[in-house]
Amino acid sequence: MTIRDIFDSMDYGPAPESSAESLAWIAAHNGKFGHWIDGAFTKPGEGFDTANPATAKVLATVTQGTEADLDKAVSAARKAQPAWAKLPAHQRAKYLYALARLVQKNSRLFAVLESMDNGKPIRESRDIDIPLVARHFYYHAGLAQLLPSEQPDMAPLGVCGAIIPWNFPLLMLAWKVAPALAAGNTIILKPAEFTPLTALLFAELSREAGLPKGVLNIVTGDGDTGAALVAHSQVDKIAFTGSTAVGRKIREVTAGTGKALTLELGGKSPYIVFDDADIDSAIEGLVDAIWFNQGQVCCAGSRLLVQEGIAERFHGKLKRRMDGLRVGDPLDKCIDVGAIIDPSQLAIITAMVDANREGETYRAATPVPVGCFYPPTLITGLSAASTLMQEEIFGPVLVSTTFRTPVEAVELANNTRYGLAATVWTENINLALDVAPKLKAGVVWVNGTNMFDAAAGFGGVRESGFGREGGWEGLLAYLKPIAKRQPLTQAKASPTPANPTTEGLDRTAKLFIGGKQARPDGGYSKPIYSPKGKLLGQIGVGNRKDIRNAVEAAHAAKGWAKATAHARAQILYYIAENLSARAAEFARRLKDLTENPGEQEVEASIQRMFTYAAWADKFDGAVKSVPIRGVAIAMNEPNGVMGLLCPDEVPLLGLISTIAPAIAMGNTVIVVPSETAPLAATDFIQVLETSDLPAGVVNLVTGSHSDLAKPLASHMDVDAVWSFSSTPLSAVIEREAASNLKRTWVNHAFARDWYGPDGEGRAFLRAATEIKTIWVPYGE
Ligand code: NAI
Ligand code: MG
């Protein structure tokens, strides 16, 4: 036998990890678990089994959480929350630190139990999942410590509900529990039905950390339990990770309730290999991207895009590498690919692959044990529209296609409804950094893949959801402003007088779409009166078609995002200057509309424009201190196309307070001005026309807020909607936004002091941007 022969066969003996400790822990509970509520296990009740997918053996029985169980858990969490929030930050930090230490001290037990309940290779649970869990608690101990000095105006939300999937059971627990507790919230977490065990072990160990009762509660159960947690009236926030279908349902159910929501959903993430890439490294990266955790990863690099010139060689090498992957017993330390989570999931993967009639399917030439296992699979030669190129398979199946130019690569990469992650391989740093910002994704990895860290935000855009986990950006999703909120009453338009007085020429204001004044599609206009009964003018009544035209114009103007921040600032200053030149005229208009002297509002509006002209080039991103040789860059990117429903009560200041932050950050907007006093906005069209603002960056559609909110919020090409309208529209907007899971920021009928600090600043800038984390490792 030559050395070459040995290398080719690479036979390994088995290196099994013992399951004894994990089985002993289960046995100590007689194989039956209740929920963890108020610091203790409840008596086990009616429930279901959780099995080891690699052996099909039942590991334990857990309890199906009922509404009564949830009531108990929520009231324990409610009771515990004020004291938990009042603890000095240092005390909370110490608890989180203790949890991190506990995870480390019991790391092997957690890793083995995780591999048994989930089927993932011990190599992964031991070297990736559990170390990341510990890191997450350490990092959040630090955030808890620094919270009062770094976020002095923020308070916890209250009681959080978390619902997590089965693919990274303990890691997803950490991603929810650590920030919730660090911020001073208490939590009820529902693990996935296939993988509840490590959450229960964690809960039990939390007693050793001395965690006060009721701060952490675990309620097991299936989707019904999840749905009941979402619907619970005493829960202030839902943090969900799972499928896009369930995420969409949760968006609909929570609409209008005032519950905070973050969604981390599915993906079909592109893995782009340029012809100058280090091919061997790119192949190793790809093994991690799609065969890590059997491909059951929301951010799996499941769509290979390889440059035409190297495609044949790349696919050849890849197939050879696939043949070397070892599939089998997850507790064997030499195993690369473990078991699929459940026979039902195996059936889905099998059916999806078998239904495909396109391209060429290659299955790794490696032994695959009988049972819940699926061979590493590559499908080449698919067209961009093929089902397998578009749908998440959530299994060890890679689909592949080729491209010719970087432009085509970006187009193909973005040809998906998702936007979670993307990977770029090239030795040309210029090309990598040119492509990364163009990819529609919350995370981009350059010459590497699946890099995660507690300091770096993770999360998606488009139908991959919204919100970030990790970093300060993640913590903010568990906080709210301290300031008490006052209710907002619906503004009323001045009524039609019996004998309206008119002076001068009747002027009908038009809509403003794509840089041109446009007649409303419906051909209707509406008189606007002063409180004294004077006819002030007419406005066009916009409809669904006008919204569609405005969205199209806003899309056509997306080059605005590429203008330099300096250039955008200049235009905002110019708008302020032109407004200032007509200050007296605007003040008169406001006086006519509202009876209040208008000077103060005009002055505040000019100042606000200046504020965001100033911010345009100062809302900086960050370089995160991640534990790799390299950098993770957190870039603030515009949302894209935004719909803005303006406040009624301050017609000019409200208009500017919403438009200015949005366009300063590079968004293009469709604005629906004050419904009751729209004429200050239509006068403002002339200011925009004379300020060098590119056509389509600001589009203005006047009319009824309740008629226009729905088409705006349901539009598939709108990326975010804000509403500060005094018409109660929050529920409609949040519900309709479920269509493409766009981000929303609505007032839930609470007022905002537009003249005070609440009327401007970072909250607006954060809502106008998405953070993209770009990982760039160093070194040859
Ligand atoms: P799922 O989205 O149904 O389950 C995730 C969690 O939500 C579980 O804890 C489940 O009990 C809970 N849940 C289910 N229905 C609910 C409802 N109506 N309200 C509240 N909570 C609910 O995902 P599932 O069934 O485990 O997997 C189905 C597919 O979802 C996979 O094939 C995969 O494509 C995708 N998926 C994506 C994940 C990701 O990380 N993005 C994770 C898991 C699954
Ligand atoms: Mg299981």
Brief digest:
With 780 residues, the protein is α/β, with parallel strands linked by helices. It is built from 26 helices and 33 strands.
Characterization of the model:
The chain is an alpha/beta fold and 780 residues long. Helix content is 40%, strand content 19%. β31 (720-723), α25 and β32 form a beta-alpha-beta unit. The site of magnesium ion has 5 residues, from β4.
Give the SSE map.
Blueprint: H1 3-9, H2 20-28, E1 32-33, E2 36-37, E3 40-41, E4 47-52, E5 57-63, H3 67-86, H4 89-105, H5 107-118, H6 122-150, E6 154-156, E7 159-163, H7 169-182, E8 186-190, H8 197-206, E9 216-218, H9 223-231, E10 237-241, H10 244-254, E11 260-264, E12 269-273, H11 279-291, E13 301-307, H12 308-323, H13 343-355, E14 360-363, E15 377-380, H14 387-390, E16 397-403, H15 406-414, E17 421-425, H16 429-435, E18 443-446, E19 465-466, H17 471-476, E20 479-481, E21 508-509, E22 511-513, E23 516-518, E24 525-529, E25 535-540, H18 544-556, H19 565-581, H20 583-594, H21 599-616, E26 622-624, E27 630-638, E28 641-645, H22 651-664, E29 668-672, H23 679-689, E30 698-700, H24 705-714, E31 720-723, H25 730-736, E32 743-746, H26 762-767, E33 769-777
Magnesium ion binds at residues 50-51, 117, 194-195.
